[in-house]
Specification:
Blueprint (H helix, E strand, L loop, with lengths): L4 E3 L6 E3 L8 E3 L10 E3 H19 L11 H13 L1 H4 L5 E2 L2 E2 L15 H11 L13 E9 L4 E4 L3 E2 L4 E13 L8 E5 L3 H5 L9 H8 L7 E12 L5 E6 L1 E7 L2 E3 L4 E19 L16 E8 L2 E9 L2 E5 L5 E7 L9 E5 L5 E6 L2 E3 L3 E4 L2 E6 L2 E3 L4 E4 L4 E8 L2 E3 L8 E4 L7 E8 L2 E3 L7 E16 L12 E8 L9 E7 L2 E19 L11
Parallel strand pairs: 3-4, 6-7, 7-10, 8-10, 9-11, 10-12, 11-13, 12-14, 12-15, 13-16, 14-16, 15-16, 16-17, 16-18, 17-19, 18-20, 19-21, 20-22, 20-23, 21-24, 22-25, 23-26, 24-27, 25-28, 26-29, 27-30, 28-31, 29-32
Antiparallel strand pairs: 1-2, 5-6, 33-36, 34-36, 35-36
């Protein structure tokens, strides 16, 4: 066999390669010892005959020889394997512990009313039990799922979950109220019965003793671990979206609420309802709606404790969020529901003398925050746009433990204060532990409980006026000042504070000097501390 000689491209030295193997030859010989590695022709004939037989068998529809499938066929096969109806014997009503309202007659096109079909589906789903319990008296359904399968359903009466159950998921579709839906109803009701929903006192506030009873376990719950997600609630201007009564550890996630006239979400009693990644609006708008002054209803009403609202946008309603329970937290909430100019409120903390409310990293877009007698309320890291501000309303005249710090305010040059007192029902008479500072403004009036003023001039008195800067009138709790004489030792004089009145501090000397006076005051007091100024 001839040797091949190749040369390295860089060194030009010869490379010694291994000889190539002999090619295969077809022959009629049956010898397997030939040095030329010849394959017998008879063996090849048998191989080709087998291939032909397999091809014919596959063309007759046998699964032993798989056929090439189109993309659509692969997709349908995937969906079929996901549901498993054919192989696992799942009927139309359910697939294991996943229940389908469509299988009970619900119309996914929204033409026919699907209320009865939903209730039949829920009845069967809640009958799947294993004898386990969550909290006392609440049956654990083991994660049973009510799958709307992307349908768009007309609902003529509320879909009510029976009480004393938990560990349930409902998801994946659209619920629309019919034209004859009861205006006081909700598309989904976690409520014992119709009368319980009708008796809701939407102006009541969770009292301090009720909060304590709940923490001590002196109350009973009707639902636990209910998850509602990926659903559009269209109330069709006929009532609300969902009501949750006496429930614990409920999740409302990735939902869309529109056309409500009462509330998009209403939570009464219970605690730990987590509302997240959702959008709520009475009317579909992205701002600047010509009918904005006509917006009504409330997007979220929490008459309950220990709840969270996270990453939620409220784009139209008279009130964005009402808090009537304690220890709630709002994070990442964007309110542009109805402008303050038109009488709208972004967040209403309606807990006179109570509170424990935290509002963090929220965006108040042309609509503000209203606090009634705030007690232990913390507002921080927020952005207030379009003259949106914070109003402190006196109901019983008390403020205690209020922090408004590290926020940004941007307005239109109207002179709107970032914090405003509403004392139309009476003055604030009990004020302690209030810190309003480290906020920044553009085209609005800065207000604070801490003031710093420097006054320079030649004379015998220097006036530091904090009237326009401080939040509360005629209230200075503490002050410090420094006096600097420009005249050197010859300008030394006896000096002191001669008057503190109406948020004005006067520093005087016993003789005329050219001096600079710096004064710092605050309006904060400790509990029980009395003002002597």
């Amino acid at each position: 066999m001839a040797k091949l000689t190749r040369f390295d491209s860089k060194t030009h030295s010869p490379l010694h390669l291994k000889p190539l193997p002999e090619p295969l030859h077809l022959c009629n010989s049956h010898s397997l010892t030939s040095p030329s590695r010849k394959i017998p022709m008879a063996h090849l004939n048998i191989f080709f005959i087998l291939l032909l037989l397999l091809g014919l068998q596959g063309s007759n529809g046998s699964d032993s020889f798989p056929q090439r499938r189109s993309l659509q066929e692969h997709h349908e096969r995937f969906l079929h394997s996901k549901t498993g109806h054919a192989k696992h014997g799942c009927g139309g009503k359910n697939c294991g512990r996943i229940f389908h309202p469509i299988g009970y007659g619900a119309d996914p096109t929204g033409v026919q009313d699907s209320s009865d079909a939903f209730m039949s589906c829920i009845t069967d789903a809640f009958a799947v039990q294993k004898g386990l319990q969550l909290m006392a008296g609440i049956t654990d359904l083991g994660g049973v799922v009510i799958d709307l399968q992307g349908g768009d359903y007309k609902i003529g009466k509320p879909i009510r979950f029976p009480p004393a159950f938990g560990n349930v998921v409902i998801h994946g579709g659209t619920l629309r109220a019919s034209s004859d839906f009861a205006p006081e109803g909700y598309l989904i009701e976690l409520s014992q019965d119709e009368s319980a929903t009708a008796k809701l006192l939407k102006t009541s506030v969770i009292q301090e003793h009720e909060f304590a009873d709940m923490k001590l376990g002196h109350v009973s719950f009707q639902y636990e671990d209910i998850t509602v997600r990926d659903i559009l609630f269209d109330s069709n201007f006929r009532g609300g979206g969902i009501v949750v009564i006496d429930a614990v550890r409920t999740r409302i996630d990735n939902c869309f609420f529109i056309h409500f006239t009462t509330e998009g979400i209403l939570v009464e009693r219970g605690h730990e309802t987590f509302i997240s990644s959702s959008f709520l609006g009475q009317r579909l708008t992205a701002g600047g709606d010509p009918h904005e002054k006509e917006f009504s209803g409330t997007a979220i009403d929490l008459a309950s404790n220990d709840n969270t609202i996270t990453d939620v946008a409220i784009f139209s309603a008279a009130i964005g969020v009402v808090l009537r329970g304690q220890a709630n937290i709002l994070t990442g909430v964007h309110c542009y529901n109805k402008a303050t100019y038109w009488g709208g409120i972004g967040v209403h903390v309606k807990l006179a003398g109570l509170g424990q409310t935290r509002i963090d990293n929220c965006y108040m877009d042309y609509t503000g925050i209203l606090l009634e007698d705030p007690v232990q309320v913390h507002i921080t890291n927020g952005f207030f746009l379009g003259n949106a501000n914070i109003v402190l309303k006196s109901v019983k005249g008390r403020i205690s433990g209020l922090n408004i710090v590290d926020n940004m305010f941007a307005g239109s040059g109207w002179g709107t204060p970032i914090v405003h007192l509403d004392e139309s029902m009476g003055q604030f008479t009990s004020i302690d532990q209030v810190v309003i500072e480290r906020n920044n403004v553009r085209e609005m009036k800065l207000k604070s409980t801490v003031g710093k003023v420097t006054v320079a001039g030649k004379g015998t008195q220097w006036v530091a006026n904090f009237t326009s800067e401080l939040v509360f009138p005629n209230r200075i709790s503490h002050l410090q000042y420094s006096f600097y004489s420009k005249g050197g030792t010859s300008g030394l004089a006896t000096h002191g504070v001669t008057s503190v009145s109406g948020n004005v501090v006067i520093v005087g000397t016993d003789k005329e000097v050219d001096g600079v006076v710096s004064v710092m005051v605050d309006q904060d007091t400790k509990v029980g501390e009395k003002l002597n100024m």
